[in-house]
Specification:
Blueprint (H helix, E strand, L loop, with lengths): L3 E4 L10 H11 L5 H17 L4 H12 L4 H19 L2 H12 L3 E9 H10 L4 E9 L5 E6 L6 H13 L10 E5 L5 H4 L4 E5 L3 H10 L3 E2 L5
Parallel strand pairs: 1-2, 1-5, 2-3, 5-6, 6-7
Antiparallel strand pairs: 3-4
Amino acid sequence: MMNLALFDLDHTLLPIDSDYEWGQFLVRIGAVDAREFERRNNAFYAQYQAGTLDPVKYLEFALGTLAQFPRARLDQMHAQFMTEVIQSAIRPRARELVQGHLDAGDLVAIITATNEFVTAPIARELGVQHLIAAKPEFDAMGNITGKLLGTPTQGAGKVAHTHAWLERMGMTLSDFERSHFYSDSHNDIPLLSVVTHPVATNPSAALTSHASSHGWPLLHLFND
């Protein structure tokens, strides 16, 4: 029987936050106003770390930034971002963990609160076909409008999006003998709680405490 392996992305498979680093990259290359963007981006990142982030407000900010550029320019910048930031951040142990599930024939997906534009190339770099992420709206020319389609893929929203994704393929969680979810964040406790094999991966202090009290294994992929 095929098993299921779900992965959070930022601070789980990556030792960085891809969304935050994308913003810092835009500042570095002069694509956005540095002072105003860093002020807002840093404020949202602090809220995320504190567990107080309003995901809709953040996504409206992130997608609104993307909407300032034509798609061709966005793709060019993202290719540079992958080369300069992401590829060197992906550690061998993270690749090996994902590849192990792929080699076992598991159904593998990355599920992340970060938007699909930023994360789709990263999922491909990791060899993962399935991505569940916040979806930007596109116009007829393929440009991002700045609007969010559907609901955020954060917290309990990850549970709903996982069920919907599996349903589209004619499956449910109960169809898998083993369902894994790897995450670093206490925000992901809802999805960690419904799989058969939750793994607290590079866990925050809050998730470490919760995982320890529930007997969940702890996995550390990054030692630096």
